[in-house]
Every structure is written in C-alpha cells, then in structure tokens.
Prior knowledge:
Chain A is mainly beta.
Amino acid sequence: TQTVSQSDAHVTVFEGDSVELRCNYSYGGSIYLSWYIQHHGHGLQFLLKYYSGNPVVQGVNGFEAEFSKSDSSFHLRKASVHWSDSAVYFCAVSPNYNQGKLIFGQGTKLSIKP
Amino acid sequence: DTTVKQNPRYKLARVGKPVNLICSQTMNHDTMYWYQKKPNQAPKLLLFYYDKILNREADTFEKFQSSRPNNSFCSLYIGSAGLEYSAMYLCASSRKLGGSQNTLYFGAGTRLSVL
C-alpha cells in the first residue's frame, strides 16, 4: 500500500520561529519525494523534491527537507518563518517513471502569529 | 510563461448536467494531469495524458473523461454531475514523465459546486 502521512493537520508558530512539518511515507520502488505549498485561493506550487544524493535538499524561500530512509520520512523545515509562509503544505510521493503521478498527504496548515 | 491556466475559476452545475473544465499551458509540455481535491482531503489523481495517450486511474475510470486536441489544451469532462463531484479540480503539466530536472506546474484550480 502506498501512503503518505502528515501527522499534524495544523501547526501554529510565531513569526521568526523555526518550524518542522512532518511527513512519513510508505512506498515500494524508486520514488521522488516532494513538497508543495498552497496559499489560500491559489493552486499548488512546487517547493522542493528529493530523488537521490544529499538527503538534505534546499527549496525556495528558505525551505529545506531531509530524507531519512530508516524512518521513511521527508520532513520540511524552515529556520525562521515569515507571515507570508502561512499556507497549507502537502507532502507527496511519486514513482520515478512518472513524477506527476503524485500521492499526497492530507496537508498541514501552517499559521503564523505576528 | 510557466503558468498553467484553468478556466473558469468557479463553476456552478446542476445535478445530472454535464460539466466541462478547461486547462491550457504554453510550455510545450508532453504531460498534463487532472487532480481532484475535496476539503480536508489530499489531492487525488484522476487521469493524465502523455502526449496523446490518456491514462485514467482505476477507481475513477468511468466517472471522468478527458480530451487533448492539441499539446497545449486539455479538458476534463463529467457526463452527469452528482453532488459528490463538488470539489476543486487542479490541472498540472510537466515537460515529460520523469527525470531529475522535471518539474510539475499546477494551475490555480477550478472550484466546481454541484447543486
């Protein structure tokens, strides 16, 4: 069974705080792991992805994610959040032969307090 | 222009009536996808085109149709809308199916409300 689990439905932090959004997956075979962001009223926007190599990948706007094979995880982090980071974040897994065949997690809503 | 355009942004439909949603991209991408997203649920892949070949997911096979008359344009068709079709429909495209440099671009979505 191929699943993506985002354990936190909602995370609230203060502006300037660090944040980690958790993602665990279950998938057989060679895969891509990715994160997408959805601001209210907008479509999904690509943040970053991992396929192989350095397990820490850098994305846009200061986001990074770390792959862990032993934990089957791909957590997203940011050292200092800005109010504009308020959005819903989706973790996704896809097979390497079709990156668009995404299986998404339920999403984590990140709220930033001033 | 790296945008995927979806029209309309909002659509109202009556139960039992057909619905046609439109997506376009000018990036000359080989692959176009349609996802369905309901509130508090993960986006779910409905179908995708690779070039002219349509691939529909097994559990949505009979519920949705699609056409791709040219490389830039892809539609999603519901023959007879039911209340359960109310959702956000997201279109996406990518240059090819795989590859480390391949990126998926999403449109802003069409919110379909069936009454």
